[in-house]
Design brief:
globular, 130 residues, 0% helix, mainly beta, single chain
Length: 130
């Protein structure tokens, strides 16, 4: 599966951005989509995951504690596009954001790890600064 992110940019603290991840190719075999970020000088970290395959009960999304209540992950199946809505952005949210796809359906979804994600986009930069 090929992934292309868009929607990054420069925003003031308290502002909002919506990142998009357009998927093409063998999307059927990748039931979990995720967003990760790499802040300057730091390791990559998980932001949010979502089970995009149908027929799964229980929680189908996971959002990291650092962004819970501010970030939301969603999917438009018809467009094969995943979204990360980011509200109330803070300077510490500054990072390169990547979307990724995993062929491993794990329940609970929070048990997914970065090693499960085998397809990655090129990244989109988000900078939060006044």
């Amino acid at each position: 599966v090929q992934l292309v992110e868009s929607g990054g940019g420069l925003v003031q603290p308290g502002g909002s951005l919506r990142l998009s991840c357009a998927a093409s190719g063998s999307t059927f075999g990748h039931p979990i989509m995720g967003w990760f970020r790499r802040p300057p000088g730091r390791e990559r970290e998980a932001v949010a995951f979502m089970i995009t395959a149908g027929g799964v009960s229980g929680d189908i999304t996971y959002v990291a504690a650092s962004v819970k209540g501010r970030f939301t992950i969603s999917q438009d199946t018809g467009k094969n596009t995943n979204y990360l809505q980011m509200n109330n952005l803070r300077p510490e949210d500054t990072a390169m954001y990547y979307c990724a796809a995993s062929p491993h359906l794990k329940v609970p979804i929070a048990s997914s790890t970065v090693g499960d994600f085998v397809s990655w986009g090129q990244g989109t930069q988000v900078t939060v600064s006044s």
